[in-house]
Amino acid sequence: MHLDTWLALLMSVMLVACQAPPAPGPVTKSTGVLANEALDRGDYASAADLYRTALVAEPESLPLHYGLGVAASYLDRRAEAIREFTWVLERAGADSPEATTARRWLQSVGAWRRPEMAVAPREEPAEASSSAAKEERKQRPAVLQGRALFEETPGVVAPMKRLQLLLSDYPDRVVYLRMRTDEAGRFRFSDVPPGIYKLTDAVAGPAKWRLRVELKPGQDLTLDLDLTNSTRVRDDFPDSSPSPSS
User: Fold this and answer.
1) Is residue 171 one of the residues assigned to a domain?
2) Minimal CA–CA distance to 186: which of 163, 208, 207?
3) Of 28, 158, 174, 227, which is the most exposed, with the fewest CB atoms less than 10 Å away?
C-alpha cells in the first residue's frame, strides 16, 4: 500500500472516531422524583423536605402538594397536612383519587366542612330519599378496638403500655388516626370511615404488627394484637420491612 493511501485511510478512521457521539452521562432525577422515591420507601422526613424544595420551582403542582400532605400526615405535622390537603381539595377534580383521599383525611381530623349549598335543596321524592338513606347507611363510621399484648421479655407476655398505633388508609397510605394504648394496652379508634386500612405500631422500620384491616359500615370490630398476629408470624405488608442492607 502506498504511503499516501495509508495516510488517507488513517485520517478517515480518525475522522469517524471524532464524530462518534459521546457516551451518555448519568441521568439526573428531578427533585419531585426524588421526593416520590423517598415517600415510597417510608423516608417521610426526607420526602417532605424534597417536596418543599420542588414546590419552590412548581408552586402550582398538585402532585407535589399532595405528596407533601401525605408525608406530613405520617410525620404528625397536622397543620401542614391540613394546609396541603385543603389546597389539593380546592383544586383537584371532586372525584379524583387525590381529592377523595384529602377529603377523607380532613374529615378524620375534623378539619373539613361540607360546602354550603347556594340554593336550598328541593324536596326529593320518596324513592330518592330512600336511596339517600341507603347511601348514608353505607357510609356509617366504624369502630376498631382491642388490646395489645407482647412478649418483650422471654416467657412474659405483658400489656403494651402507651404503644403508638397508626391506622392508615390503604393503598393511599395516608395516616387517618394515631393514638397510644392505655396502661392496660387497650386501644379504640372511633368514627373511622369504612374501608381497608393498615394497622401498625411503626411508621417505618421494625414493627411488631402490620395488619390489613377491613372495616364495614357501622361495624364495631374487636382486634387484639398479640404474638399470634405479630410480624413474627404474620405480616400483611412485607414490603414495608427494611431491606437487609438498611
Assistant:
1) yes
2) 163
3) 28
Cell numbers for 130, please give them: 330512600
Domain check: are 213 and 144 in the same one? yes
| Domain coverage including residue 186 | 140-240
Cell numbers standing for residue 20 = 462518534
Q: Do 151 and 220 reside in the same domain of the chain? A: yes
Asked if residue 224 and residue 161 are part of one domain, the reply reads yes
In the block, residue with C-alpha cell 407535589: 64
For 64, counting Cβ atoms within 10 Å of its Cβ (0-12 exposed, 13-18 middle, 19+ buried), the class is buried
Q: What is the pLDDT of residues 6-22, one digit of tens each?
A: 556 556 655 555 555 66
* Residue pLDDT, tens place only, 184-239: 999 999 889 999 999 999 877 789 999 999 999 999 999 999 999 999 999 998 86
Q: What residues of the chain score a pLDDT lower than 70?
A: 1-26, 112-138, 239-246
Q: How many domains does the chain have?
A: 2
Q: How far apart are CA 198 and CA 175, in angstroms?
A: 9
Contact criterion met (CB below 8 Å) for 51 and 35? yes
Residues 145 and 210 in one domain: yes
Q: Is 231 exposed, middle or buried (0-12, 13-18, 19+ CB in 10 A)?
A: buried
Please indicate, yes or no, if residue 207 is contained in any of the structural domains.
Answer: yes
Single-letter code of the amino acid located at 229: N
Which 3 state secondary structure label does DSSP give 229?
helix
Evaluate whether residue 1 is within a structural domain. no
Q: Given the C-alpha cell 478517515, which residue does it identify? A: 12
Residues 104 and 156 in one domain: no
Helix (H) or strand (E) holding 6: helix 3-19
